[in-house]
Write a structure and sequence with these properties.
The complex is a heterodimer of chains A (541) and B (441). Chain A is built from 13 helices and 26 strands. By secondary structure, chain A is an alpha+beta fold. Chain A is globular. Chain B has two domains: 19-77 and 377-419, Urease, subunit C, domain 1 (Roll), CATH 2.30.40; 79-375, TIM Barrel, CATH 3.20.20. Chain B has twelve helices and 17 strands. In chain B, strands 1, 2, 3, 4, 5, 15, 16 and 17 form an eight-stranded mixed β-sheet that branches. Chain B has a six-stranded mixed β-sheet with strand order 8-10-11-12-13-14. The chains are: A alpha+beta (541), B alpha/beta (441). At the A-B interface, helix 5, helix 7 and strand 24 of A face loops of B.
Chain lengths: 541, 441
């Protein structure tokens, strides 16, 4: 075994070094023998053999019918299950953080210059140019059986273009399947500038799509009648919209709640877009819309009720119950209506949690074979890569996983992953999270007072902490404010608070220190600062 | 023949679709405050398919129809709130002064618990609006409060299309706690009127541009290379207003600028649906009555800012008596459940009659929203939107018992309390199960 391991490492490293020297590299040949094969597009084979050669599946079938080539390294896969590598078609793994730091935001708020024009236009943002690979993330994706991911751009109204990545190592060009998969759109706001409200964002989408149509008409008419029509003024933003509004390339709407789904469908229909619905963990609640629209669905297995949901607004108990007992039924309900969908992680940021939640969806009634399709052939079809990915078939790219125990069962373990025919051993130990760990957990209710020249403002804070990430809500007589970014690094707490003061959106920043029962620090905003102290409200239970 | 079969199938399909027709219900033996047809004691209401079919004494209910016994109770049309901001994801597009392109119907939140709060106070319909941060806000929306149903089920398509305007302190940002680094034009009352006029001038030019285009389009020689104007979603609502297809709802306080806005409406030929808050309306009641422009106001609680200092308790009653169409609004997801209390204040301050006071929260707001043919009073043929009160709705000791929309009961106090009790009981039982009995303490 040890020899085998060394051999594999050698081969892998050699492959990486040799690649630039020889150009096309001949990848190793493997024979996986004795596994149960789940090909996705055919019936499972109990004792099967899969031959992998030069990155592709060469042959697959019952063990007695497949002869093992002489040059193949034989992998004993008895009592293991073989599946196509899983595709998670809506993630943000490896995305280099592009959001401005708190200090940058603050200086921007203070600056006398007007806010950036069209700050919401990131149509020129290419995910493929903003990736930074981390071995730990790669390992945890492999551990969850994921071999292909769609990386979507960070949240922005017009967010940018996603990339489809095959997780075959850490070198970028070799990993990219497609660099400009779809234009991503979010129902979010451009804080501090237009549009600062959801309704403004909907209006902006409509105006922009109308503008793109008009721009296209102008251009085309000019080309036909250059003598009669004046040349349209070049517009970079509209130019970048044309492929999506006119040529109907895919547009992916992030839909955080059921109303977002309807908003997206209305826009898709008004402008005849090639629109995809992503997120959609409340899709079953608008199932008639979904059925009628017949759009590709990237359904997140994040089961937290969205903040607009009534389940999120009638007390903690109902919210938790909904997360455990209601929302996991979403995929099963869609499947019952014969609606096709891909399962994606969406807001879930840990690959392990993703697989765990898919399991919960299966336990809530989604047939396992449908879950498997939703993670393989369906997303492959959605993105036009099903001719070479998404099932175990001769000729397809060798993205495969070997598991102990069937997928979507509680004790299933991914043992080995092949991506582009390269073998990756899966380590079982949890990777350690990066960054300085939080010294305490701040989750719970806090009573805070804010003292400034304007007087004292009392407020109640409700914080949630996961790892060193802090989020929550602040309720005071001035309204409810959201904590958009919070980090507790050791004892040092920093937060960005999105406040709406007299109808105007403002960003406040907090910096201070936290202990188990006390938070103390300074809140800064444009034009001043205030001292904040908070004490924990003891839990009634 | 085939066509007929298809039509029949489609028709049956429509009938089976939930939400297509309202419910059947029989309300028995209540004191009916019809608003427009007097008071009927010991009155019954027969509701079929969500519409009021019959009103009168000793009606015979059809067999099998659900019956609500209103003996000793008061039955009135569902309360209509002419100005609120509930059931929306967002209130202001505050980043710009002119935001007429935004539509509240794009951000309806049917899950807002304020809807249920409103139902507990007998409210069945709301005009839920853009805020007052901008001289020109956005297009408002009228909803029926069908809690548990979808935004589309709640949407009232036959109401006026209305656009929010705002004058005075809010649009000129007088009360911003923090002075913004980028002050927004306008900063004065004259600026507010000026920017609205400027926008209407633009809209007029835009309208002309389209007219010209549509004219030229008829010429077959030109049509191949003729370009339509760029669609401008910000100006289109203003064009609709000048064409009489949309009305203004204008937030205002001071009498002078209220009159100024009337002048503006004449200059550009648009209709004003109502003035909002209008704490100085009593100073110009005659002018408002002459122009047939209504007001949607609070019953009390003035002086919350400088421009609201000249409010008086008699305002609503005084204007009503002087021929102004007055409605009492909540502007809030909380006060919305006490609009009947607010209406009663006009009897104490201004001596309105019971009927006049009730009109302020029923038929008057219905007229302001252009829905008076469908709701606002108990009349045969109208939607069965009904509130049932324990005492007379204008009594200080009353409370709403049931709220009904199109024959369907959306709030039932007794049932709600029963459910709460059961839940408490369940919780208790659970807790008891968890605590081990006996043993050391």
């Amino acid at each position: 075994m040890r020899v085998l391991k060394n051999y594999l490492i050698f081969f892998f490293v050699w492959g990486l070094i040799a690649a630039p020297l020889f150009g096309e590299v001949v990848k190793p040949t493997y024979a996986l023998v004795g596994c149960r094969i789940h090909p996705v597009n055919g019936t499972p084979i109990d004792k099967g053999t899969i031959i992998i050669r030069n990155g592709k599946i060469e042959a697959t079938g019952p063990a007695e019918k497949i002869s093992i080539p002489e040059d193949a390294e034989v992998i004993d896969a008895k009592e293991l299950e073989a599946y196509p590598g899983l595709i998670d078609a809506y993630t943000q793994y490896f995305l280099e953080s592009t959001s401005p730091s708190t200090a940058q935001r603050q200086s921007r708020m203070m600056a006398a210059s007007p806010p950036e024009e069209r700050s919401w236009d990131k149509t020129g943002f290419l995910v493929v140019e903003n990736l930074k690979f981390k071995k730990t993330t790669l390992d945890s994706l492999h551990r969850a059986g994921i071999t292909t991911i769609l990386v979507s751009p960070p949240q922005q109204i017009f967010a940018g273009l996603s990339a489809l990545i095959n997780l075959n190592g850490e070198k970028l060009p070799a990993m990219v399947l497609q660099d400009k998969v779809a234009l991503h759109l979010y129902f979010t706001t451009a804080r501090g500038s237009y549009p600062s409200s959801l309704m403004g964002t909907v209006a902006l989408f409509r105006q922009s799509f109308y503008d793109a149509q008009h721009y296209d008409l102008q251009k085309k008419t000019f080309l036909r009648y250059p003598d009669k029509v004046s040349r349209p003024k070049y517009d970079a933003f509209l130019e970048r919209l044309l492929p999506y509004v006119i040529e109907k390339k895919p547009v992916i709407f992030n839909c955080a709640n059921l109303e977002d789904i309807k908003r997206a469908i209305r826009l898709i229909e008004e402008f005849d877009l090639n629109g995809y619905i992503a997120g959609a963990n409340e899709a079953w609640r608008v199932i008639e819309w979904i059925k009628k629209a017949r759009r590709p669905l990237l359904v997140s297995v994040d089961f937290k009720p969205p903040i607009t949901s009534r389940y999120a607004n009638m007390g903690e108990e109902i919210k938790e119950k909904a997360e455990k007992e209601i929302y996991p039924h979403n995929p099963a309900e869609l499947q019952k209506e014969k609606i096709s969908f891909a399962l994606v992680s969406g807001k879930i940021s840990k690959p392990g949690d993703f697989l765990k939640n898919v399991r919960l969806a299966v336990e809530a009634g989604l047939p396992a074979e449908e879950a498997l399709k939703a993670l393989t052939i369906i997303p492959a079809r959605y993105f036009g890569v099903d001719s070479y990915l998404g099932s175990i078939e001769p000729g397809k790219i060798a993205n495969l996983i070997l598991t102990k125990g069937e997928l979507f069962t509680a004790d299933c373990q991914v043992r080995r992953v092949f991506v582009d025919g390269l073998s990756f051993e899966v380590k079982t130990a949890e990777a350690k999270s990066t960054g300085k760990a939080a010294a305490v957990n701040l989750s719970g209710k806090w009573k805070a007072s804010l003292v400034s020249q304007m007087g004292t403002l009392e407020s109640t804070w409700e914080l949630t902490q996961e790892g060193n990430k802090v989020s929550g809500m602040i309720a005071s007589e001035m309204g409810n404010w959201e904590i958009s970014e919070g980090t507790l690094s050791g004892n040092k707490l920093t937060m960005v608070i999105m406040a709406n003061i007299m109808g105007q959106d403002m960003e406040l920043t907090f910096e201070g220190e936290a202990s188990k029962d006390k938070i103390r620090g300074t809140i800064s905003f444009a034009g001043g600062s205030a001292e904040m102290t908070a004490t924990r409200i003891p839990d009634a239970r | 023949m085939k066509k007929i079969v298809v039509l029949v199938i489609v028709f049956i399909g429509l009938l089976l679709t939930p939400g297509w027709a309202g419910q059947d219900l029989f309300i028995k033996n209540g004191t009916l405050l019809t608003i427009t047809k007097g008071i009927i004691s010991g009155g019954d209401i027969l509701i079929i398919d969500g519409k009021i079919r019959q009103i009168g004494q000793d009606l015979a209910p059809p067999e099998g129809i659900p019956v609500v016994d209103a003996t000793g109770l008061y039955v009135m049309p569902g309360i209509i709130d002419s100005h609120t901001h509930i059931a929306l994801s967002g209130t202001n597009e505050g980043s710009v002064a002119i935001s007429s392109e935004v539509r509240m119907k794009d951000v309806i939140n049917a899950e807002d618990t304020s809807i249920y709060t409103a139902l507990t106070g007998g409210v069945t319909m709301v005009h839920t609006m853009h805020g007052s941060a901008n001289p020109i806000g956005g297009e408002n929306v009228v909803l029926k409060l069908k809690w548990g149903k979808t935004a589309e089920d709640m949407y009232v398509p036959y109401a006026y299309r209305t656009l929010k305007f705002a004058l005075g302190e809010n649009p000129k940002r007088a009360n911003m706690m923090v002075v913004s680094a980028n002050p927004r034009y306008p900063q004065t009352r004259m600026g507010v009127v000026a920017i609205i006029r400027r926008e209407f001038e633009k809209a007029r030019a835009y309208m002309e541009e389209w007219k010209r285009y549509n004219q030229l389009k008829k010429n077959k020689k030109l049509v191949s290379f003729l370009l339509p104007p760029r669609r401008n979603l910000r100006l289109e609502p203003l064009v609709l207003m000048m064409e009489g297809k949309m009305v203004a709802r204008c937030h205002t306080y001071q009498a002078d600028e209220t009159l100024e806005f009337i002048k503006l409406s004449k200059e550009f030929g648009f209709k004003i649906g109502a003035f909002e808050h209008a704490w100085e309306a009593y100073k110009i009641a005659k002018e408002l009555a002459a122009e047939k422009i209504g007001i949607s106001v609070f019953a009390d609680s003035w002086a919350y800012k400088m421009e609201a200092y000249q409010g008086i308790a008699y305002m609503a009653a005084f204007c009503a008596k002087n021929g102004v169409l007055v409605s009492i609004n909540s502007d809030s997801g909380e006060r919305i459940r006490r609009l009947f209390n607010d209406a009663a204040k006009t009897m104490r301050y201004g001596d309105l009659s019971e009927e006049e006071a009730l009109k302020l929260i029923t038929i008057n707001p219905a007229i302001q929203l252009g829905v008076e043919k469908r709701v606002g009073s108990l009349e045969v043929g109208k939607d069965a939107d009904i509130a049932i009160f324990k005492e007379h709705p204008l009594s200080a000791f009353t409370r709403c018992e049931k709220t009904i929309i199109e024959g369907e009961i959306y709030f039932d106090r007794a049932k709600y309390l029963e459910e709460q009790k059961k839940k408490e009981q369940k919780k208790k039982e659970k807790a008891e199960k968890k605590t081990p009995k006996g043993g050391l303490k």
